[in-house]
Write a structure and sequence with these properties.
Blueprint (H helix, E strand, L loop, with lengths): L1 H48 L2 H10 L4 H11 L4 H14 L1 H10 L6
Helix pairs in contact: 1-4, 2-4, 4-5
Length: about 110
């Protein structure tokens, strides 16, 4: 009988630990979302400032390619559509093929 009396107490401790763990995870998710939002805003500002020369340099050094641009666009669209469109115009001057491929991948960008 003593064991039966102790079980609910033990179970409640386990439940508290599970709830605390869930709270930590949701708090961590919240902080990660804030960090992602800040990074997206920074990236959108950077994309607006890129020139054709910067873009060409990024392409030649391998920092800009279809994979990196697609990843950036996935995170920026639709909230930062104007920044992405601005970058796409510059990219079109530097690499028409890459710009066309990105437009095909992201139909909302077709101008």
């Amino acid at each position: 009988m003593e064991d039966c009396g102790k079980r609910p107490v033990d179970n409640s401790k386990e439940s508290e630990q599970e709830e605390t763990g869930k709270t930590d995870i949701s708090e961590e998710d919240f902080h990660l979302k804030i960090l992602k939002d800040i990074c997206c805003e920074l990236l959108s500002n950077m994309l607006q400032e890129l020139t054709k020369e910067n873009t060409l340099e990024g392409l030649h050094e391998g920092h800009l390619n279809e994979q990196t641009c697609s990843c950036a666009f996935q995170n920026l669209l639709p909230l930062y559509l104007a920044s992405v469109e601005s970058f796409l115009e510059v990219l079109r001057e530097a690499d028409q093929t890459l710009a066309d491929n990105l437009e095909k991948r992201f139909p909302s960008l077709k101008v």
